[in-house]
Every structure is written in C-alpha cells, then in structure tokens.
Structures
1.
Amino acid sequence: NAGVTQTPKFQVLKTGQSMTLQCAQDMNHEYMSWYRQDPGMGLRLIHYSVGAGITDQGEVPNGYNVSRSTTEDFPLRLLSAAPSQTSVYFCASSYNRGLNEKLFFGSGTQLSVL
Amino acid sequence: LAKTTQPISMDSYEGQEVNITCSHNNIATNDYITWYQQFPSQGPRFIIQGYKTKVTNEVASLFIPADRKSSTLSLPRVSLSDTAVYYCLVGDRSGAGSYQLTFGKGTKLSVIP
C-alpha cells in the first residue's frame, strides 16, 4: 500500500491563479481531511470529509473548495490564490471519523503564492 | 476552536526522560487522547493513544488522570532522533453538528547531546 499520496510536493503560483492539490489514499479510509501548517500556528483544519459525497468545513475554509466523488480521492482547490495561502498543506485519512482512529498523513505540499 | 494547550518548546539532554503535558478542559466523554510526532518536512505520525489511566507502547507512555482534563506524554531516555514537534489531539464538538479533529500548536522538543 502506498498510504496517502499528495501531489505536487512543491508549487509556486502567482496571485489570482488557480490550482488543485491532489490527495489519494489506497487504504479504503472513509475519513479524509486537509490541514495547513504555518510557522507558529501548528496544524489547522481546512476541510474534511466523512465519506464519498460528504464534505464539511474546518477551522480555516475560506479560499478553498473540496469535493469527494470517490472514497480514494480528496482534492483541494484554490480558486484564486492569495499570498496568505502560502503554506505547507497536509492531507490525512483514517478508517472513520472517530477520534480513536489513527490519522495517516501524506508527505505534504509546499505552496508559495507570489 | 483549539481545545488543547501545550508548552511551546522544551529542551532535554540525551538519555533523560521527557514529559510533555497537554491541557484539554473541554474533552468530550467519548473522546480519546492521541499524540502525534512530526519531523521537519514530514507529515505527523501517530505515537500513542489512550482514554484514561496509563497506556504504554514501545515508543512512549501516556498518563491520563481521572478527570481527563489533561494528559502527559512520557518519552523514556530520549535520543537526538526524538527531536521533533509533538501534538496532542482531541475531538472538537464546538461546531453545531460537526466533528472536527483539531490539533494544538504542538510542543517543539529539542534533544541536546
């Protein structure tokens, strides 16, 4: 199993550009989520999904869209990138949304918005 | 939304035992307490999880008092490779009908030779 795979690993965007960060897992996990990590801020939840067709907002959802058309994939879309979205993004998944489920993280996408 | 409080940083010499405490006053009755470790340029990885009293595995021990309003991660005889950020995770039910897994800001542990 590959676990949680994120692409790309690095990305540079200009303000106003759009892009999609990809996340895929091959563990048949129902729960998937996106976090962003900024210096001194820890990990902050952007969006999450408890199953295909179901998404919900986290702590910092503004400027990001998600969809969950399959169990395996949970892409994160930036419709109009802003410098404030410069961050490291992590995708995570678990078997279900219960707190007693371990979260498995991808290796991250480092995004810079100029 | 954050419901956990941890020290921002800690220093320790190699070979010492390190204890990191997390406060979570609003923990829900059915919530578990989970700790994650993150090395630079990597995603966090699971270390240990518990509900009450004490849990021990090959990596760490977790102590949880009866009121469950705090927990302490104990790392025995740390080495340089234990230098990392440690996160305490509990559920966040503050949103109406939502269930969010919220990380605190983490504790940066630096192990000194």
Note: Chain A touches chain B at residues 4, 33, 35, 40-45, 48, 50, 56-59, 90, 92, 97, 99-100, 102-108 (CB under 8 Å).
2.
Amino acid sequence: GAVVSQHPSWVICKSGTSVKIECRSLDFQATTMFWYRQFPKQSLMLMATSNEGSKATYEQGVEKDKFLINHASLTLSTLTVTSAHPEDSSFYICSASGLAGGYNTGELFFGEGSRLTVL
Amino acid sequence: AQSVSQHNHHVILSEAASLELGCNYSYGGTVNLFWYVQYPGQHLQLLLKYFSGDPLVKGIKGFEAEFIKSKFSFNLRKPSVQWSDTAEYFCAVISSASKIIFGSGTRLSIRP
C-alpha cells in the first residue's frame, strides 16, 4: 500500500530555534497533504492543508507565520515550526491524499508522526 | 460547522466480547466516512471506509461499520474482540475538498 514517511521521529530543540519536519510520499503522488497536531489523549487537530505548488490553507487559530508549510513537489511537504517555544511541544502528524488512476481516492495515508519537545 | 462525535471515550471489554463504537457526524451533503486505528506506538492506519453503495462495510481484522444516513451515524462493530484490538479508534469524515474531520477518538482496552 501507499506509504508516507515522516522525518524526524523525535526532535528536541531549544526555545527560540526553528525546526523543520519533512513528510514524503514514497510510492504515490500526493496532490494534497495535511498537517495535524495531536495533544496527549486527544484527537488530531487539523492545522493546515497544502496543495502542491500553492499556498497552504490554515485552520482558524493556527498561526501561518509560526507554522510554515511548503509543498514544493508531489512527494514532499515540510512543516517548519519557527521560533519554537515550550507550548509548541506536541506530536505533529502529516497525511497525504493521493492519486490513483488519475482520481483522488479520498483515502488518507499517514506518516509516523514527529514528537517535538521544546526546552 | 462540520463535526464528528465519538461519545465513548474509553471502552473496556473482555476478550470475545462484542464491540460497538459510536460515531455521529453533522453534515447534510455527501460524505466519505472512515475508521482509523492507532495501535500503541504506531501511526494511524485505515480500518475501513465508506464512499457509496452497500452501507454495511467490511474492513480489516474482522471489523465492520454501518452507514445509517438517517441517523448520521457510522458505528464500528466487531463480533468478538481480541486482546490485540487494544488501540485508539478514530472516526473521520471527508465532506469536501479532501478536508477530513476527526472525532475525538475512543480508547479500547481489552482484558485478556
């Protein structure tokens, strides 16, 4: 089946630094990628939707200048947490919606997630 | 606004018991419905999905779900659970533009 790879799995950084998380679709073209944040014992919260070659659409309450999303190719999207603070510590997950036979199947494939800890 | 409700936050069952997890959504148009599972320490995986056709959908590992349009529900069922079914289960809806909305999740614990 389709695979989405997320890197890094774990990252620890100092407050004020920026962290980049990569999300790659390994065997399919990801026309749309989604970034989520998951708090402990809670559901996934959609942060933004990105389509290849265009600007990301952010959900209400998500700071676009803080969470920079780039979807430059059909296989790679990146999330950069700029000037990270301890409250940004969380589990970030990406998912990709792919093409099969030219049609978007509507099914999502998830990355393994990236746990960010900001000291 | 679109929303997905999972009313059972934590379900504890013994092995071989039957399972039903509730999922209700609020959206009047055409929807695609999903159940995802997250085993401890692993990423989300698709259990089953409904796009159209037979409202009773069979998924992996013996799971099934029934889409009842009049009730805006898509409950997940399994006739006999196993210890390995211990996981977090998320119901999800895609309504338009591939935007997916997740429920808050139900933690399933199975007693050996």
Note: Chain A touches chain B through 19 residues (CB under 8 Å).
